[in-house]
Design a protein that fits this description.
Layout lengths: L1 E5 L7 E12 L2 E11 L2 E6 L4 E6 L3 E7 L5 E6 L12 E3 L5 E3 L15 E7 L5 H13 L4 H20 L24
Antiparallel strand pairs: 1-5, 2-3, 2-10, 3-4, 4-5, 6-7, 7-10, 8-9
Length: 188
């Protein structure tokens, strides 16, 4: 699940926290904020704001280290995400605070076949490897169930193929012997 809205600082499962990380989401360049890598979510919250972006690891299609436009963390989501929320769901009041329209929650839409691209750029590019390692660790805690069902199907196919080629001794139904008189009884 991808959530756009007020966030609380994660207390459980925090793996990495890094301040002064700017985020670019699709075509919107955001100010610096705090990036939280937790066991269940990747979160980014703009400094001085309550709202932020929270992405469950199951919704991250791809994460990588990119050099475009500068060295950064790149994420891809297989869904359209309306962030910043004020672009489609609210507006800033006189104090600079975001007011969300009550009709919309500011979430990402699963129904649209679009994708969302996100770039996280820390001020210190030497931290990118450690952020990526933390993300890899957390993503591995949430494997893609479709990937495993495809791998299991491939394994079943390989086992069946091996049995057909006689590669698997347990797959042979009978061990026929040359001296078996009935082995060609139905050959006519």
């Amino acid at each position: 699940m991808v959530i756009v809205g007020p966030l609380v600082n994660p207390e459980e499962g925090l793996v990495k926290k890094l301040e002064n990380v700017t985020m670019k989401i699709n075509h919107f360049q955001m100010n610096a904020g705090v990036l939280y890598v937790t066991e269940n979510y990747l979160r980014w919250q703009e400094t001085g704001r309550e709202e932020g972006l929270s992405i469950a690891w199951q919704d991250v299609t791809l994460h990588a280290i990119s050099n475009n436009p500068v060295k950064c963390i790149y994420l891809m989501l297989d869904q359209s995400c309306d962030y910043p929320a004020e672009a489609n769901h609210g507006h800033r009041n006189g104090n600079g605070q975001l007011e969300i329209d009550e009709d919309d929650e500011g979430t990402c839409e699963d129904e649209e076949p679009e994708m969302t691209e996100i770039w996280f750029v820390p001020t210190d590019e030497n931290t990118i490897e450690s952020i990526f390692d933390a993300m890899k660790q957390c993503q591995s805690l949430h494997p893609d169930p479709e990937q495993y069902s495809e791998e299991e199907e491939d394994d079943d196919f390989r086992m069946a193929e091996g049995a057909a080629n006689g590669d698997d001794d347990d797959a042979n139904i009978e061990n026929l012997h040359i001296d078996d008189d009935d082995r060609f009884a139905d050959a006519e």
